[in-house]
Specification:
7 helices, 0% strand, mainly alpha
């Protein structure tokens, strides 16, 4: 995990609260994007399995799929980093600020964690590593999303 929080992360913290209905709508959007990202992850998993087993057809482009996922993940993180999302949580519930900052730092870590996967795609000899690299990344992302969900439960005072 990154040890330094960037300026863009800190600037989202102390902002005024917004109406609960508006914030709930934003949270719903983010959770919906989690599902969309999950679908892309499933496509990547299937394609890497096909490549490992020699079943991928000539029209399969894993590099294009990973790049599409990278773009969508960056867009998703940008939405979360908005002052009206994580910033609202930190402003409304200051005791959650530390967890917000930790999750924000993980965004850059997760984006960086895609690099080994992209590098392995560029070197045919490393394609055998794709499945394990992908599974490592996917578990990191799932752990991050579980932590975000726990933060939302805490924000809304819901207990699991």
């Amino acid at each position: 995990m990154a040890s330094i929080i960037s300026r863009r992360h800190v600037k989202c913290i102390p902002r005024p609260s917004v109406e609960p209905a508006a914030i709930f709508g934003r949270f719903s959007t983010v959770l919906s994007e989690h599902a969309d990202l999950g679908a892309l992850l499933d496509r990547m998993r299937d394609l890497f399995a096909d490549l490992r087993e020699g079943r991928a057809g000539p029209t399969s482009d894993p590099g294009q799929l990973v790049e599409e996922f990278r773009r969508e993940l960056r867009k998703h993180f940008t939405l979360e980093e908005n002052e009206q999302y994580f910033g609202t949580i930190a402003a409304d519930r200051p005791e959650l600020k530390g967890e917000v900052l930790r999750l924000l730092a993980e965004h850059e870590d997760l984006m960086g964690a895609l690099a080994p996967l992209q590098a392995a795609l560029q070197e045919p000899a490393r394609r055998t590593e794709l499945t394990s690299l992908f599974e490592t990344f996917r578990e990191q992302l799932r752990t991050h999303e579980r932590a975000e969900n726990a933060l939302l439960r805490e924000y809304f005072d819901l207990r699991s």
